[in-house]
Amino acid sequence: MSEHVHTSVSNGTGFIVLDRPKALNSLSLDMVRGITQALLAWREDEAVAAVVIRSSSEKAFCAGGDIRFFHDAGKATPQGGSALVEDFFTEEYSLNHLVHFYPKPYIALMDGVVMGGGMGIAQAGPDARVRVVTEKTKMAMPEVNIGLFPDVGGSYFLSRAPGALGYYLGITGVTIDAADALYAGLADHYAPTSDRAALEELLNSTPGLDLPVAIQAYSSMHKAGGGALEADRAAIERHFSAGSVPAIVASLQADSGPFAQKTLEMMASRSPLMMCVTYELIRRGAELDVAGCLRMERAVVRRNFENGEVIEGVRALVIDKDNQPEWRPAALEQVTDHMVRRFFEPVWPDYAHPLRHL
């Protein structure tokens, strides 16, 4: 078990606590394995009727994968082909699949930062999920900002967000709050931290089997209010339904309104290539089931490390902190269909795919 993942069972509930606060609970391979081991052990355990996954800190539920590790391991080997990187993504995506199809109520307390890999361990399937957000929730799939793409099942849950919201969230990597998360269907309940003592009492005193109903009753007394996504919905639909990233940008450029101008400024710092890959990923994901989406993402992430875009993005954002990534290509008009299709070419024959058993 990872030193950063603590587990316990009480009153029919299995508790998983992420405890790597200095790194905002960024997932290491050991943490992925610790969570997986707990979930597998409890899946058939009659003493565990529900699972709660949370953080030891209100600052972050989970900020994603350990991108410093991606950079160091990927840069150390030709074409980013580190065995540890390969293991990480294979096991992380397997965990995402396990979470999605977990047979017991799976309650994620998404307090603070919830990004990337944190979304992957929170977005359970409809039969299990109980996703709770607070006024401190800062949610995003911000991978295009580091030259990656919204993985961990993002091609599945973003493609199923209402209207064009999934394209907007994935292509821009914008950060949203609790109200937005609820509006986009990426959360279920709102629980303000001002009433945290009552929620803690509920979690500790309610038998695991009764937790989903109890949390629903509790959250019905609290409202998150309106959010930016609802206010900007008409503009999002108009622009992000344009049919491609270049068409989206052209649509935004023709709009002098504040939403369009702010969105253009945000997209200008993202990887042009990975914004286009993200569009295609979400488009394809709409036609695939969960396992198909994860298998597609597993191949795309291998292509990404071969390309090196993520290594450059992490260098600029986290390592050197110059915030001047040298994207390849540097401009959106230089991205070709061939470049994008290359990311979706099979890496392995079907019988050898690392996620073939999902």
From TrEMBL:
Pfam families associated with the record: ECH_2
The keyword Ribonucleoprotein belongs to this UniProt entry's keyword annotation: no
InterPro entries according to UniProt: ClpP/crotonase-like_dom_sf (IPR029045), ECH_dom (IPR045004), HIBYL-CoA-H (IPR032259)
GO terms of molecular function: 3-hydroxyisobutyryl-CoA hydrolase activity; isomerase activity
Domain of life: Bacteria
SUPFAM superfamilies in alphabetical order: ClpP/crotonase
Example GO biological process: L-valine catabolic process
Lineage, opening ranks: Bacteria, Pseudomonadati, Pseudomonadota, Betaproteobacteria, Burkholderiales
Protein known as: Enoyl-CoA hydratase/isomerase family protein
Keywords: Hydrolase, Isomerase
Entry keyword Cell wall biogenesis/degradation: no
Organism expressing this protein natively: Duganella callida
Domain Enoyl-CoA hydratase/isomerase: 14-344
